[in-house]
Amino acid sequence: MTSQRISIFPLAGALLFPGMPLPLHIFEPRYRALIRDALARDRRIGMIQPRNDARVPALYTIGCLGRISEFEALDDGRFNIVLTGLARFTVLRELDVTTPFRQVEAVLQDEAPDADAPLAIAERAALEQESRSFAERQGYLVDWNAVSRLDDAALVNGIAQVAPFDTASKQVLLEASSLRERAERTIQLMQFFGRTDGESGATLQ
């Protein structure tokens, strides 16, 4: 696969999955510069998790490229944006740049809409059943008719992005190599998170 330069936004706790929207409020000067640069080019930036809270933190290897699908430029230079996930990427190396924001050389995964095979009927049914149980335990109100109309990728990635799992667990979901693997891990996390025996929020290895 061909590598490309990606400007990145390493924001702890904010994970983006392919096809999903992520609203962000941009206020730091370096990330205002990132948004201005992206808007002047192709509107694409990469969301990736920092590994620590150092001034220049180490990064996870897998992130998600997104496109600014909506934006509001505020009078004081801040931005409100909606970033829509396009594809996962794997970082090859960080680039030496003069921009205030960081850039990496990376390769895209999931470039084709059908990159992942759809779930089997039984796998889809298991995911929907566990989702219903999880939502009931959490007290969520869900339009299940709308859920049933989602395609497999939208269902799996939607749960992965919005469910109240810890950051490390969501990173594990993002790193899943196939839609089927992500669905299986999502089911396990919903089961772990719903327990009341002290194991709630367990992280998959």
Topology, element by element:
Layout: E1 3-10, E2 21-26, H1 29-40, E3 44-48, E4 62-73, E5 79-94, E6 103-108, H2 121-138, H3 144-148, H4 152-162, H5 167-174, H6 179-193
Parallel strand pairs: 1-3
Antiparallel strand pairs: 1-6, 2-5, 3-4, 4-5, 5-6
Helix pairs in contact: 2-6, 4-6, 5-6
What does this entry look like structurally?
- The protein is an alpha+beta fold and 205 residues long.
- It is built from six helices and six strands.
- It has helices at 29-40, 121-138, 144-148, 152-162, 167-174, 179-193; strands at residues 3-10, 21-26, 44-48, 62-73, 79-94, 103-108.
- It has a five-stranded mixed beta barrel with strand order 1-3-4-5-6.
- Helix 4 crosses helix 6.
- The model is unreliable at 196-205 (pLDDT under 50).
Helical segment count: 6
Quaternary state of this entry equals single chain
The SSE order reads EEHEEEEHHHHH
Helix content: 25-40%
Sequence of strands across the biggest β-sheet: 1-3-4-5-6
Let me know the number of strands: 6
Query: Gap between N and C termini, in Å?
Result: 28 Å
Radius of gyration: 18 Å
The share of residues in extended strands comes to 25-35%
Ranges with pLDDT <50 over ≥5 residues? 196-205
Structural class: alpha+beta
